[in-house]
């Protein structure tokens, strides 16, 4: 499952290189105008459904009540198909309204250099078809996961991404370069790829279903049949499990949606050319965002594996164990994310050039946006901890406060600092949400934060040393290599990233911090790399 997620994330990052080359900045901006509303809709419809369904089925399977899970599955398919169709109809018919509030003009048509309401309406409607399939598909994934079968979800996830990307790239290229079609048509094909990818995933899940149905039917024959649970009770329990994950899942798309509503208007009010405003929006909400979200995904994925232990310690009121688990979670997050985002900020110019071509604005935005990724990760993990200590109600409060800060400050800061203002407003919004989450953790989990604060200072010092050493290497490399060309940018990134990682992990190893955080995993890694393993004596601090 982890491998499938990582492959899917990597594919989701690297496809933007050829896609950007095909449709350029205005194409990616148009793509993002449609994809953020779709992401919000799909998150509301499906976020937490696989996990909630798997938790429900696993619970009743453990009790020998296999019929309860099958009953949920049969009715759930109908419910999710119906909700998918309803979601599709709402997004399809609300597309003109959403387009109008996202754009300040109301033109009926456009060329490649001018995005209009009609253009955004077309691409939103193209992507909306995926809503018919994805909720239905997510329920099947949850059913398999509830039976401790992760292969179907993992494989279908990767197949969905591959099919989507191939259709997206080939379709957009053919429309523009073979059929000489418009940019709007090319981007519409690219967004419709979400539907094609979902069909590919559904085909994989159907194959797994027919292959494993005999085994599932044998389990059903062992059903005790001692519990009678109504559909109403089932869905009430499912919603209880899924609701917190929906809020966390839509947080980032909602912040992006606020930019879609306000960014172009604020830039135009400054007298900035519309083409430049659209290009700046594309840089902010698509190009840079795609890059900064990768270290967040990997780091939070590692940290969130510790959340079940947090839940167990909290339920048992084992405060000492709970504090240790919270210490571990937050330290691992900082150790993995902080150097990654600072390194990305330092190498903003060659990294941006590598993916999208050289651009001064892209470099500036990525340089300031990369550190904000640490806040993305902290919000996700602190929100997950709130779920672990059964205080997920405060997730609603923290998210609303964060969105209110973003909404109230976005336009004033954009008018003051242009694109950098939107980045700052996002950072302030997330900071507000994180502070609330941490206060709740401090109060309800009786967590002191002292050890994390002390270790955080050590990680900051390590990161500063890494930054200085990598910066010196970078300054030397740019004397002989140009960050304005892709190949030379690749060399700069590889050399600097290798040196930065080596310095940072060397410091962590010398102080034994890596052993404190990762324990036996370090020895396992050394065995795989055939490095000598010494008996460690523990931390030096």
UniProtKB/TrEMBL annotation:
GO biological process, one term: cell division
Lineage of producing organism: Bacteria, Bacillati, Bacillota, Bacilli, Bacillales
GO cellular component labels: plasma membrane
UniProt entry keywords in alphabetical sequence: Cell cycle, Cell division, Cell membrane, Membrane, Transmembrane, Transmembrane helix
Pfam family for this entry, one: Polysacc_synt
Entry keyword Chloroplast: no
PANTHER family: LIPID II FLIPPASE MURJ (PTHR30250:SF21), PST FAMILY PREDICTED COLANIC ACID TRANSPORTER (PTHR30250)
Originating organism: Bacillus methanolicus (strain MGA3 / ATCC 53907)
Residues that span the membrane, as ranges: 7-23, 35-57, 77-95, 115-140, 161-179, 185-210, 238-258, 291-310, 330-348, 368-389, 396-416, 422-445, 457-481, 487-507
Primary location class: membrane
Membrane topology: Multi-pass membrane protein
Protein name: Putative cell division protein YtgP
Subcellular location, record wording: Cell membrane
Keyword Metal-binding (UniProt): no
Highest rank taxon of the organism: Bacteria
InterPro entries: PG_synth_SpoVB, Poly_Biosynth_Transport, Polysacc_synth
